[in-house]
Specification:
The chain is an alpha/beta fold. The protein is about 40% helix and about 20% strand. The chain folds into two domains: about 1-250, pyruvate-formate lyase- activating enzyme (Alpha-Beta Horseshoe); about 300-370, Orthogonal Bundle (Arc Repressor Mutant, subunit A), CATH 1.10.10. The protein is built from 15 helices and 15 strands. The longest helix is centred in the middle third of the chain and has 17 residues, at about 210-225. The model has no long low-confidence stretch (mean pLDDT about 95). It binds iron/sulfur cluster.
């Protein structure tokens, strides 16, 4: 299984917490679409023996593109790659872009999954984050989208300053009232160079509280599990049969090609990433060059990646796989490092699979970094 990710590097405005790559100037939008198609053509040989099962429009804000542009890009995938009969085709969309007419256009196109950036149903949260939509738009777009799509995911953010547990629960309940099949939830984090970072530094808003984020995380797990969702990855919850195929493939180490500025690719042995700059990307593509850097993954890098993704997902870390793929020295090291977390009930081993316990889930990234290897190879 393999996938194609297409990065649409434009947003209407900059959300205060965001450090993804995007431009708020739409001037080069049409030029960018042509460049993305050209990159798809350039790179078809990388997937000569692969069948594409997922196409994912991420960003940025893919819903700033017209339906014609989106169709043009999907057509370019079909013209240059082998695609399975019913691929999962996801479009990330923001509520302010979704009205009835547009949702119907999407529903009549090959797009069959929407991932909607709701973030919160409360006006004050949306303003604090500088989102382009308001709470009414978030609810209205879900009411429309659920009439035309059965595969919908929404994003929510928790751990915001002064967000009470009651308010967070209300956000989850509002999401559940739309009967959607997938929810991705992220703790608010402060990335350098963002407006949020400056606001916290200047004291305009209070620092984030890890304990509060942890409480929100546990409320989330309990509420969504009660409602039939499976917590299949640290930040992702899906009803059975509605896990994101695109993201699951990524966590299971499948190959993918990332098209567009800042997009990452993985071929099983190396990772590459395109330049995070729209003018440089456009210039390189116009000169028939691929603006990317590549890193060959060492055995240790591959071990570390497996540890990180394994601990974040319900599939865990197979100790048999560590032994067969990496060797007994890696397995011994892992046993040794994991020991203290097992005695603290943060990790557990079941059927020779190492996983986080409910208590350990929130800490999985920190635990993973303690299981990483730095010096072998
Ligand atoms: S819409 Fe998404 S990508 Fe764009 S600034 Fe906001 S969070 Fe970042």
């Amino acid at each position: 299984m393999s996938g194609i990710y297409i990065h649409i590097p434009f947003c209407k405005q900059a959300c205060h917490y965001c450090d993804f790559h995007f431009s708020t100037s739409m001037k080069k939008k049409e030029e960018m679409v042509l460049a993305l198609v050209k990159e798809l053509e350039f790179r078809k040989d990388e997937f000569q023996n692969e069948v594409v099962e997922t196409i994912y429009f991420g960003g940025g804000t893919p819903s700033v593109l017209s339906i014609d542009d989106l169709r043009f890009l999907v057509d370019a995938v079909y013209q240059n790659y082998q695609v399975v009969e019913h691929p999962e085709i996801t479009l990330e969309a923001n509520p302010d872009d979704l009205n009835t007419e547009i949702v119907i256009q999407y529903a009549n196109s090959p797009i069959n999954r929407l991932s909607i950036g709701v973030q919160s149903f409360f006006e004050d949260d949306l303003q604090l984050m500088n989102r382009a939509h308001n709470s009414e738009e978030a609810k209205r777009c879900l009411a429309v989208a659920t009439q035309h799509f059965d595969n919908i995911s929404i994003d929510l953010i928790y751990g915001m300053p002064n967000m009470s547990n009651k308010k967070w629960l209300k956000n989850i309940e509002t999401a559940l009232s739309f009967n959607i099949s997938h929810i991705s939830c992220y703790a608010l984090t402060v990335e350098p160079k963002t407006a949020l970072y400056k606001m916290i530094k200047s004291g305009t808003i209070s620092t984030l509280d890890d304990d509060l984020a942890q409480q929100h995380f546990h409320i989330l797990i309990d509420k969504l599990q009660e409602n039939g969702f499976v917590h299949y990855e640290l930040s992702n919850f899906g009803k059975p049969n509605y896990f994101s195929k695109n993201n699951t493939a990524y966590w299971l180490g499948k190959k993918y090609i990332g098209i567009g500025p800042s997009a990452h690719s993985f071929n099983g042995k190396s990772r590459s990433w395109n330049v995070s700059n729209n003018p440089l990307y456009l210039k390189a593509i116009a000169e028939n060059k691929l603006p990317s850097e590549t890193e060959i993954l060492s055995k240790t890098d591959q071990y570390n990646e497996y540890i990180m993704t394994g601990l974040r997902t319900i599939w865990g870390i197979s100790l048999d796989r560590i032994d067969s793929e990496f060797g007994s020295s890696y397995l011994e090291y892992l046993h040794h490092q994991a020991e203290k977390y097992i005695s603290d009930n943060l990790l557990e081993v079941e059927n020779n699979i190492l996983k986080t316990t409910k208590k350990g889930k929130f800490l999985s990234d920190g635990i993973a970094s303690d299981l990483f290897l730095l010096n072998l190879n």
